[in-house]
C-alpha cells in the first residue's frame, strides 16, 4: 500500500511524469449542479498540491477531530503536450491520457479557505490517481463514464455527455490564463452522489469508454480510509468546525446526514433553507463555495484607509461607474472608516408560512454571522425597509468576535446602543426595536443583492466613512485607488497654495502654468 510519505516516483507511478500542477474544477456536471442548487455560468477552478497525489491501493486519512471526509469520483485529464492560448478545436489534441481520480475533501476545514480548498482538499493522499491510463486519442471525450463504489456499493455514475462544460472548453479556458505543461492534471469535477466516508471504508473509482472498441477502462482506483491521529494545534490556525448545513452538503442530503426533513421541524427550526431560485436543498452559507472570493492585501487595505469615500466615488464616476454608491445609510460611528470585502445576505418580505420554514433555527442570517471571515463586511438587502431590525447585539458580537470589518444594511438595527457598545462598525437606516420576522424573512446569501440602491456582489470592495459608502468592483480597485490617492495629493497641494494666499482662479482647476508647478513638486517627492 502507498503511504503519504512515499516518494513522488511511487505516488505518481501511474502517470507519465509527476505533475507540475493539479487543477480542479468546482462544478462540472448537471447532476451535481442540481444537487447543489446552483448552476455556474462559466467554469471555475482551484489548485491542489502535487503532494496530495497517491497511487491506487493506498490510504487516505480522515484528520483527527473531523467528521466530514467526502469522496468525489472524477475523470482526470493528463496533459500530453504544452497548451497555451489554444482554441476549442485543438484543445483535446493537448490531452495525452485519461485516468480515474478521487478528489477527497474534509468539509470541516472549508470555513476559512474562502473557496481555495487548500486545507480541506490538499492533504497528503487526497488525490488518488490511476491505476491505468486511457489513450486520449482512442476515446471520445463526450462518451466517457465515471463510476464510484463505496464498500462495493455503487454510489456515483454519470457520463460526460451531461457535462456543463466540455473538456475542450476547460483546456482552452485554462490555457488563456496559464501554460498547461506535460504531465499537468486536470480534475474535471464530480457528478451527484458524493458523500461522507469514515475509517475502514473502501472507495473505488473507475473511468471507462463503454462505447469505444474494446470498452477500455482504467480499472478501479482503490483507496482505504484511515483515521488520522495527530490533532490540529489551535495556536497555529483555525480549527475544524461543522454545523448541520455543512453536514447536509457533505452527505448530499438531509436524509443521508441523519437530519430531520425541513417540514417536520417545529417552530421553523431549520438548519438549511430551500433555495428560492430552484427549490433544491439549500447551499449553506459557510463562506462562498464553488468560487474563490476576492481578498484584499494588507497594502490595499492601508491605501483604502487613506482614500476618502468622496474621492473614490469621483474616481469611479470618471471610469463610467455611476451606480456604485450605497444611498441613504448612516454610520453608527462617524469617526470610523469601514474597509472590507462583501459577504452578502438577502431578506425577502415577511410571509408567515415562509418565516415558519426559513426564519427560525440556524437560518441564513445566523449562518452568515456565524461564518463571516476576518476583514469581510456583511452587506444586507432589506429592500430599504427600516421598520424591523435586521441584526441585533448577539449577532453583532459574533461578527465582531470573528473579525468582521463591519455590517452594512439598508434596514434597521435592533439593540442599537448595545451594538454600538460592542464596537462593530455599522452603517444602517437607523434603529428599530422590532425583531426580524415583522418585515423580513432571511432567504439566501453569497449572491448578488441590492443594498441602498446599489448592486453588491460577493467579494466586492466596500468602503465607508462619514460621507457614505461606495462599492468598488475588484477589477477596478487598483486603478481607482491610484487615481484617488493621486487626486488627494493634488488637492492637498492646491489647498496649501490657497492657504498661502493664492487665488482660486487658474489654480482650481489648474491651468497649464499651475499644472507645471504641481508636476515639478510631485517629481521632487
Considering the chains and any ligands shown, give keywords for the structure.
hydrolase activity, Glucose Oxidase, domain 1, 525 residues, Fumarylacetoacetate hydrolase, domain 2, seven-stranded mixed β-sheet, metal-binding, Fumarylacetoacetase-like_C, 3 domains, alpha+beta, 24% helix, RraA/RraA-like_sf, nine-stranded mixed β-sheet, single chain
Describe the structure.
The chain is α+β, with helices and mostly antiparallel strands and 525 residues long. The chain has three domains: 8-242, Alpha-Beta Complex (Fumarylacetoacetate hydrolase, domain 2); 282-472, Ribonuclease E inhibitor RraA/RraA-like (Glucose Oxidase, domain 1, 3-Layer(bba) Sandwich); 478-524, no CATH class. It contains 14 helices and 25 strands. Strands 15, 16, 17, 18, 19, 20, 21, 24 and 25 form a nine-stranded mixed sheet that branches. It has a seven-stranded mixed sheet with strand order 2-1-12-6-7-9-3. The chain has a five-stranded mixed sheet with strand order 4-14-13-10-11, with no helix packed on it. Helix 8 crosses helix 13 (477-499), helix 10 (364-371) packs parallel to helix 11 and helix 11 packs parallel to helix 12. The model is unreliable at 264-292 (pLDDT under 50).
